[in-house]
Amino acid sequence: MLSNLATRDVETLIHPYTNLDAHRANGPLVLERGQGVHVYDTDGRPYIEGMAGLWCTALGYSNAELVEAAAAQMGRLPFSHLFSGRSHDPAIELAEVLKELMPIPTSKVFFTSSGSEANDTQVKLAWYYNNALGRRAKKKIIGRSRGYHGVTVATASLTGLQANHADWDLPLPGFLHTACPHHYRFAEAGESEEAFSARLADELEQMILREDPDTVAAFIAEPVMGAGGAIVPPRGYFQAIQTVLARYDVRFIADEVICGFGRLGTWFGSEALGMAPQTLSFAKAVTSGYVPLGGITVDEPLYAAMVDQSAKLGTFGHGTTYSGHPVACAVALKAIEIYRRDRIVEGAAEKAPHFQARLARLAEHDIVGEARGIGLIGGLEIVADKRTKAQYDPKAGVAARCVAFAQAEGLIVRFLTGDRVAVCPPLIIAPDEIDALFDRLTRALDRTRDWIR
Ligand code: PLP
């Protein structure tokens, strides 16, 4: 029997990324409040939020300073925009702070309200830039199979997941996908990580040559793939890929929407993985997920071209009502102040070996083929046969069942395509909470194994 709230939910709401058919029978998990790394449902049951919401609540729940920053800005200037040269101090100050933090040369910052809008802006600017330079054919964008970059028409096209393409009439022409860098799944027998990286870089180069380098504008990649399965790239991957991109003057866009702001134990994932992109997208943890904010960095050559375009066209014809919303900027400023003051990023790096050791132990479980991560993010892949890596029939929904068992154990984690389960807790998680998280996940895997047999 669904509770009153659950019944009302089923009667009224469309849920993103939910099996809408199954939802009618199962109903929602209705959460009411959160504190630290825990969230509580309407019956008062606590759960460890092992996904930091959607990879975003780095500072956990009910952080009083973030709440206060939002309330203060609401009381002072709840809305103002950045159109037509209008400005406000939270946006100016945040842009300054972000410029200073960025791991890559950054001339300016452009704000959006989400990761999708940030990456959509990246696509448009890659086109706009090449038009400004008179390279009108250089427009194709390369993403990766299993990459995730959002849901707008362009960013769902960048995304390399079937659910974002099938029956959506996507990807649009001009969006290509190169191979997924998942060594466990796609390396050949005996192929080292380095050799696998070299092979993938070669495949990318062949794709660029096949398409004609004069038609390829940009390549986009997450440092660690999130929604595609919490996949850490093999050793040497980005170094090999970057050599190819530089050879053909292809812009490199880092999608730091998950990895930005400490997830890998460094401020940005690019630093942890040796990436040197021309630009990056951020969102999520920039405000610890408390209010929507995203954005991109603009390098000096791009900025110069944008200024020239404005002189020619009369305006920079892009931006949304909420680009640089003052409340979002004020919360982001406070979040970054806390990251710095409380050494949150360093703390993530210090806790990472313990987190990764507990994650790695799950690889010994009967139904786990791989358990791997970096920093405070990780994923595991459930397999039917550890030796052959054979998977269960996707219709059996084994990872979904594991996630349901985890929920019954008081842990929220997420299942992803390919029977993968992702773990990405708030960065403030304490060592004993890391143990509780993995104890619960182990019990969920045990229950999944017993359910299968
Ligand atoms: N890029 C990455 C790497 C993401 O993980 C996500 C969302 O999970 C997005 C982009 C899209 O962000 P949003 O859902 O805020 O539009």
TrEMBL record:
Pfam family, one: Aminotran_3
CDD domains xref list: OAT_like
Gene3D superfamilies assigned to the protein according to its UniProt record, in alphabetical order: Aspartate Aminotransferase, domain 1, Type I PLP-dependent aspartate aminotransferase-like (Major domain)
InterPro entries the UniProt entry points to: Aminotrans_3, PyrdxlP-dep_Trfase, PyrdxlP-dep_Trfase_major, PyrdxlP-dep_Trfase_small
Molecular functions per Gene Ontology: adenosylmethionine-8-amino-7-oxononanoate transaminase activity; pyridoxal phosphate binding
GO biological process, one term: biotin biosynthetic process
Domain of life from the UniProt record: Bacteria
Keywords associated with the record: Aminotransferase, Pyridoxal phosphate, Transferase
Annotated family: Belongs to the class-III pyridoxal-phosphate-dependent aminotransferase family.
Name of the featured protein: Putrescine--pyruvate aminotransferase
Protein species of origin: Methylobacterium hispanicum
Gene that encodes the chain: spuC
